[in-house]
What we know:
Elements: H1 4-15, E1 20-22, E2 29-33, H2 37-47, E3 56-58, H3 65-68, H4 74-83, E4 88-93, H5 100-103, E5 108-112, H6 117-126, E6 130-131, H7 146-153, E7 159-160, E8 173-176, E9 183-186, H8 192-199, E10 234-237, H9 242-251, E11 256-260, E12 271-275, H10 280-295, E13 301-305, H11 313-325
Parallel strand pairs: 1-7, 3-5, 4-8, 10-13, 11-12, 11-13
Antiparallel strand pairs: 1-2, 2-6, 3-6, 4-5, 8-9
Helix pairs in contact: 1-6
Amino acid sequence: MATAAEIARAAALLKRGELVAFPTETVYGLGADASNPQAVAKIFAAKGRPADHPLIVHIPDAAQLDRWARDIPEAARVLAAKFWPGPLTLILKRQPHVPDAVTGGQDTVGLRVPNHPVALALLREFDGGIAAPSANRFGRISPTTAQHVRDDLGDAVAMVLDGGPCQVGIESTILDLSGPRAVLLRPGMLSAIDIGLVLGRVPLSPDDPLAPPDLARSRASGTLEAHYAPKTPLVLMPDDSLPIALRNAIVQKERVAVLATHPAPFEMPGVLWHVAPADPAGFAHDLYANLRALDALGCDRIYVQKPVGQPWQAILDRLKRAAAGSGEA
């Protein structure tokens, strides 16, 4: 775990406009001073990230909401009181001083308070907002350990704070509160039902007829069709279709890997079978580490058992995007 001296050094680097990777409960973030456009530009360069793709600003507590957002609805304050620190990002109308480099040129900003002792200590020491997407190459598998960050970004980062493996393992829920109705832009392990129980009604999805008509043009972190992807082609497969697909792969002499929540039903030569936790929280916690391990095997294909049911919504979202972006050099 990062020491107080390391956290102080990291905060000093951020103040000098350098990049610092740090742990959160979701994934590791690649941080820069959110008020410094030149520092923020280094994030995009290090990741190879499109310049119009907005970032999330991490803040030390809900008391700093008004520094970054305006016209804040009561729903935002209620949700912040309930779920922060935690894996919830709120999209709100931005204050005029928030750089376009952070918002992707939009009139909104994403804000959250991470629930990790190292992240919170860094934010308090820095005493400002830290813009931070996931600390990996754009579109690839998010990092959930400090070593993942080093493997992906190397010398592009001035410092990596080690906080151990991330507890949640997939990115935060993103909720847009900048309009008249709450809209869930990205599912996370904090579900729409969890939010609905606090607000009194479940948030809309972007394709809901009641959603604001301009929402389809709104951009949020991690919502592109292809994202979170291994280099090995990834195929989502219903559990009852897996045996047939694998038999065909064996006939074709393909070397394939499988990620499923149960052991292999029969012996399969050339198939590297990995058993993942059968509960959504455990599966999410291990997901990116598992995908990285399977990607490193040099197989022709990765088959992932397709999850079913509302508790798996966020995991299914990540896997669909991973499948869409996989196999690309």
